[in-house]
Amino acid sequence: MFKALLIDKDAAGYRAGIAELEDDRLPEGDVTVRVAYSTLNYKDGLAITGKGPVVRSFPMVPGIDLAGTVEASSHPGFKAGDAVLLNGWGVGEVHWGGLAQRARLKGDWLVPLPAAFTPAQAMAIGTAGYTAMLCVLALEKHGVTPDQGEILVTGAAGGVGSVAVAVLAKLGYRVVASTGRVEEGDYLKELGAVEVIDRATLSAPGKPLARERWAGAVDTVGSHTLANVCASTRYRGVVTACGLAQGMDLPASVAPFILRGVTLAGIDSVYCPVPERLAAWQRLGRDLEVTKLARMTCEIGLSEAVAKAGELIAGRVRGRVVVDVNR
Ligand code: NDP
Predict the structure, then answer these.
(1) Nearest protein CA to atom 7 of ligand 1, as residue
(2) Are 46 and 92 in contact, with CB atoms under 8 Å apart?
(3) What residues are paired with 112 via a beta bridge?
C-alpha cells in the first residue's frame, strides 16, 4: 500500500484527496521509485483545484515533479538504490505523478539527482526552477550579456520568478522584478533584484511600441504583460516567454519584432530534450545559491497539499513549495 493524492471527476464533481492505494494500481513503467519529495508548481495548482484543464484522464495522481530512490528497474540506465529526479513528460497530467509515496515511470524520463542537491533541494527547485534556468540559458544563447542593460522578471515573487531573479543576479545581471505584491520588495531585493516595480505598470493594454528599457526579460505572466514587455524591450533584445499567470492570450503587435529586431523565445520544460535538461540542472548546481533557495522555500506534508494548491492559484504563495510525501 502507498499514500497518494488522488484526483477524480465524475457525476459527483471534481475532487482531490488523500487515498491509500494498492501497489498493483501503479501504472505501466520500467522503473519504480520510492518518492521522498514532490512540489507544488502552478500546473499542479491548476490540476488539484480543477481551475485549468491539466488532468487528461481520471483518476489521476498529480505532481509534475518528484525526487526519490529507485526501488526496482528493468531500464538499463537505472538500478535499485539510484537517487533520481523527474520533471514533466506529462507526469501528473496523463501519467500518475509525484504527489505519492511511490511512482512507476519510464526510465527515459528520469535524470540522476544532481550531486549539488539533496532530494528536498531538488524539489525546492522543481519544474519552476528548472524552467527559470531554461529561460536564462535562452537569454545567453541569444547573446544577452550583463553589460547590455536591465533584465525584467515578471511574476517575480512566484516560483519561476524567484529562481530567475536569484540566478540572474548571481550571474551579474541588473535584475528588475515585477510583482503584484509590493510588500515582497525586501524579499526580492534579498534574492538580488536591484529594483522592484508594480506589475500594474505592465498589465493593462498598451501601445505597440514603448520606451526601450529591457535588454532581456523572463516573462511568466503572458497576456498584456508579455505584449508590453516586448513593446518596451530594447533594440535586438530578447524576451523569454514561459508562463500564463495573467492569461494565455497575447494581444501584441509585430512592431517590436520588425522594427527593433526583438526576439521572442518560447520556453517549454515538459518535453525539453534530455541533454538540455541535464545542462540546466548542471547550471543550477553552479549558479543558484542554496541559501537563497532556502529563503524562497516552504515545506508542507502531503495532507496539506490540497489547501496550499488553492492558495498558490490565488497568487498568495511566495516562492516555492516542497511537499514531503511521507508526512
Ligand atoms: P507561481 O504561482 O509560483 O507564480 C506565478 C506568479 O505570477 C504569482 O506569484 C504572481 O507573481 C504572478 N501572477 C499571478 N496572477 C497574476 C495575474 N493575474 N497577473 C499578473 N501576474 C500574476 O507559478 P510558477 O512560478 O510555478 O509558474 C509561473 C508560470 O509559468 C505559470 O503560468 C506556469 O504555468 C508557467 N510555467 C511554464 C513552464 C513551461 O514549461 N513553459 C514550466 C513552469 C511554469 P507576483 O505576486 O510577483 O505578481
Answers:
(1) 155
(2) no
(3) 84
Q: What is the pTM of this model?
A: 0.97
pLDDT tens, residue by residue, 161-172: 999 999 999 999
Cα of 308 from ligand 1 centre, angstroms: 15
Query: CA distances (Å), 23 to each of 1, 27, 34, 44, 96, in order?
Result: 6, 9, 12, 23, 13
Give the separation between CA 97 and CA 238, rounded to whole angstroms: 34
Q: How far apart are CA 244 and CA 275, in angstroms?
A: 26
Alpha carbon separation from 39 to 21, 98, 119 (Å, rounded):
20, 8, 11
Judged by DSSP in three states, 219 sits in strand
Count of residues making up the chain = 327
Q: Please state, in angstroms and rounded to a whole number, the distance separating the CA atoms of residues 154 and 145.
A: 19
Q: Which domains does the chain have, with CATH numbers?
A: 2-113+296-324 (3.90.180.10), 126-266 (3.40.50.720)
Probe target for ligand 1 pocket from 160, 184, 276, with the most ligand atoms within 8 Å of CB: 160
Opening angle at CA 290, ends 285 and 294, nearest 5: 140
- Look at residue 69 and give its three-state secondary structure: strand
Condensed to tens digits (0 to 9), the pLDDT of residues 187-196 reads 999 999 999 9
In contact, 69 and 35? CB cutoff 8 Å: no
Closest ligand 1 atom number to CA of residue 320: 3
Residue 47 is which amino acid?
A: A
Q: How far apart are CA 229 and CA 203, in angstroms?
A: 10
Strands 2-10 and 263-266: unpaired
- In the predicted model, what is the mean pLDDT of residues 36-41? 98
